[in-house]
Description:
By secondary structure, the chain is of the alpha/beta class. It folds into two domains: 31-128 and 251-319, 3-Layer(aba) Sandwich (D-Maltodextrin-Binding Protein, domain 2); 130-225, D-Maltodextrin-Binding Protein, domain 2. The protein contains eleven helices and eleven strands. The chain has helices at 5-30, 47-63, 78-85, 99-108, 143-152, 164-177, 189-197, 208-217, 263-277, 280-287, 298-319; strands spanning 36-40, 67-71, 93-98, 119-128, 130-135, 158-161, 182-185, 203-207, 220-225, 251-258, 292-293. It has a six-stranded mixed β-sheet, with helices on both faces. The chain has a five-stranded mixed β-sheet with strand order 7-6-8-5-9, sandwiched between helices. Helix 2 crosses helix 9. It is globular, with a radius of gyration of 23 Å. Residues 5-26 have low confidence and may be disordered.
Amino acid sequence: MSLTSNSRRWFTRLVCLGACWLPAFGSAADYPTRPITIVVGYSPGGANDVLARIVAEKLAVSLGQSVVVENRPGVGAIVGASYVAKAKPDGYTLLMGASGPMVFNHVLYAKLPYAPQDFAPITLVGTFPLVMLTQANNPAKTMADMVSYAKQNPDKVNYSAPSASFQLIAELFNGKTGAKFQHIPYKGSNDAITAVMTQDVTMTLIDTGPALTALQGGRVKAMAVTSGERLKDLPQVPTMTELGVDINVTFWSGLLAPAGTPAPIVKKIQEEVAKVLEMPDVKKRISGLAITPTSSTPEQLEKMINSEINTWRQVATEKNIKAN
Length: 324
């Protein structure tokens, strides 16, 4: 069969289009063919970092490629989130996102170098409350004692916070109790806890993983938790609602990719992470940090992010809370 000149031109275009389409489908089907990086926006040791390392270890086995955790701390996790938002959307650069960079930063900062739509949500990984820590030798026996002292000595009390999310909860605590703990920023949860140990700050409201580790060392003590119920790992520590402070807050960590990452790749990662979170040893390791292993669909995570941004924006506006 012979082709006319016009037919040959159309045939050539179709062949070219097919060649262009094939890599896109092939990359999703063959993914991954090289190492994957999971970026964490905090320094090592916090809940986000620990979760990333647990998931990375198992994904490396199930996907057949190394999965590296890269810490890019700074400015309330903005540095790490911005890096991933601008990364190539091919599934090889992911973000272990959290309530801070994905929700609270959008609420508290007037301008950010990234937006919610710059990411393709993949799945939740874990949820956890916060623990209020102070020095082990702090004369205050209860949270009420701390609040009373803070009201009488506002120039002598402060708190450490590794990101805007922790800052918002601490400022909400100030507003609910009438205390005036002053904000001191830090790059990560371990840094924030160390500041308590060295008495550079009075207290911190921090994620459960590093809080439990610090409590085991005996240099800090827990005054309250932000969960609705007492933690099984800290049964002697009351909830804030038990103590008359209306704060019931749970944070989360989850995987996200740059916007535009092919849906088949997002789906593959989501399915693999869901399997990882069902592994008995993974459940044990994560639960041992007072974190609840929790998976989701990309749609569920996206819906949750948008809903939480709206909810906390109202709280921040009502309380006139801004990042500093």
